[in-house]
Amino acid sequence: MLDGVTRRYAVGGAAALDGLTVPVPGGACLVLLGPSGSGKSTALRLVAGLEPLDAGRVLLDGADLAGVPPERRRMAMLAQRPLLFGHLSVLDNVAFPHTVRGVPRRRAHADARARLDAVGLPGFERRRPGELSGGQQQRVALARALAAGPRVLLLDEPTTGLDTGARAEVHELLRRVRADLTLLLVTHDPVEAATLADRPGDRVAVLRDGLLQQHAPVGELYARPASLTVARLLGGRTEVPGTVRAGRHVSPLGALQLPVPVPAGPGVLVVRPELVELVPAGSGIAGTVAEVRVLGARALVTVAVAGAGGTARVHAEAPLGRQPAVGDPVGLRVPVDVRTVVPPSEDGERQQLP
Ligand SMILES: Nc1ncnc2c1ncn2[C@@H]1O[C@H](COP(=O)(O)OP(=O)(O)OP(=O)(O)O)[C@@H](O)[C@H]1O
User: Fold this and answer.
1) What is the predicted ipTM?
2) Are residues 143 and 233 in the same domain?
3) Average pLDDT of the chain?
4) pLDDT in tens, 237-270
5) Where is the ABC transporter domain (predicted)?
6) How many domains does the chain have?
7) Does ligand 1 lie within 6 Å of residue 187's CB atom?
8) 9 CB less than 6 Å from ligand 1?
9) Is the pLDDT of residue 83 over 90?
């Protein structure tokens, strides 16, 4: 549990982390998601005990960790770069947490071998870290972290710098070894957040400028972002400014009924591209294809809609090969339940009710 956790690097300056309060239930995964400089790594260092708090408390199973040194917190960290000892063999790297505790060499090595098997690296014992790929090194670092017998695994951008295949391997491994470990993951990648925080109790805390923006299961962040910041961080593209009147969002798209009550006034309609349906011209909201961008197996189709008060741009997805062409007239269908209105300013309060 983080309770009002605050860190201010410069006296009188803005807080890098400002009163962060989020529960971290035992065995669950909490993701700290945010853009660069939002305070994610600071939070992780404070939890690990590597830096002092300026205010607040870090609690583990209800006990305040103030004054408990990092090595006695039963936490292990997997950093962005593996930070292995280059002069030691892979086996000795993994056995290191045992060695420093004085565990007899034979037992330490037996455990390290089992850990290497568990991360899919049997037979790599005698190699030096420099003889492994980046993904393999990260797996060794994970084996070493687990050898320390932590209750909490701190993951600081654990797959940044790895290629797609190695990333997927590390994600799969983390999901496999997770068991009842508590995970605290720092990332700027919503896909990584969604991949690792996929159990019922898992949550994502979105940070910006040291402040908590939203704390929710990842699916809710996608479906109901609380602000433009959250919508953009989750890869949202469509933002249609308008006005909320009598439960409808009024914009060039028309007067669209909203699924939940939203206070009247200015508001931005945000809709995920994968939830907008492209239908034949003549049905739905009439528009013209303004741009098509191929993204792997899908195409991102930008549709311009001219209506009362101006033009709106709405993004939709189509399977590759089935996308319309620039200039084609099309129809758009925006299902009622996927319409979310957020405040026009990034700093505004959430308007959408839960
Ligand atoms: N040791 C430090 N001394 C002074 N300022 C710091 C220090 N560490 C971080 N900061 C500042 O605190 C703020 C939050 O930094 P932090 O590293 O926690 O962000 P982050 O979200 O982890 O960013 P990134 O994704 O780039 O690592 C930033 O403005 C940063 O410049």
Assistant:
1) 0.94
2) no
3) 93
4) 899 999 999 999 999 999 999 999 999 999 999 9
5) 2-234
6) 2
7) no
8) yes
9) no
Distance 80 CA to ligand 1 centre (A): 15
309 and 177 both lie in a single domain: no
Q: What is the pTM (predicted TM-score) of this model?
A: 0.89
Same domain as 245, residue 213: no
Q: Please give the average per-residue pLDDT across 189-213, as a whole number.
A: 94
Confidence at residue 353, expressed as pLDDT on a 0 to 100 scale: 34
Strand order in the sheet with 29-33: 75-78, 152-156, 182-187, 29-33, 203-208, 211-216
Residue 33 sits in a domain whose CATH number is 3.40.50.300
If one residue of 5, 31, 40, 51 were mutated to test the ligand 1 pocket, choosing by the most ligand atoms within 8 A of its CB, it would be 40
- Nearest protein CA to atom 2 of ligand 1, as residue: 9
189 and 298 part of one domain: no
Q: Of 172, 195, 223, which residue is a domain's last?
A: 223
Q: What is the 3-state secondary structure (H, E, C) of the chain?
A: CEEEEEECCCCCCCCCEEEEEECCCCCCEEEEECCCCCCHHHHHHHHHCCCCCCEEEEEECCEECCCCCHHHCCEEEECCCCCCCCCCCHHHHHHHHHHHCCCCHHHHHHHHHHHHHHCCCCCCCCCCHHHCCHHHHHHHHHHHHHHCCCCEEEEECCCCCCCHHHHHHHHHHHHHHCCCCEEEEEECCHHHHHHHCCCCCCEEEEEECCEEEEEECHHHHHHCCCCHHHHHHCCCCEEEEEEEECCEEEECCEEEECCCCCCCEEEEEEECHHHCEEEECCCCEEEEEEEEEEECCEEEEEEEEEECCEEEEEEEEEECCCCCCCCCEEEEECCHHHCEEECCCCCCCCCCCC
Domain span holding position 302:
228-342
User: Same domain, yes or no, for 218 and 243?
Assistant: no
Across residues 52-74, what is the average pLDDT?
A: 93
If asked whether residues 141 and 255 sit together in one domain, one would say: no
- Ligand 1 and 164: CB distance under 6 A: no
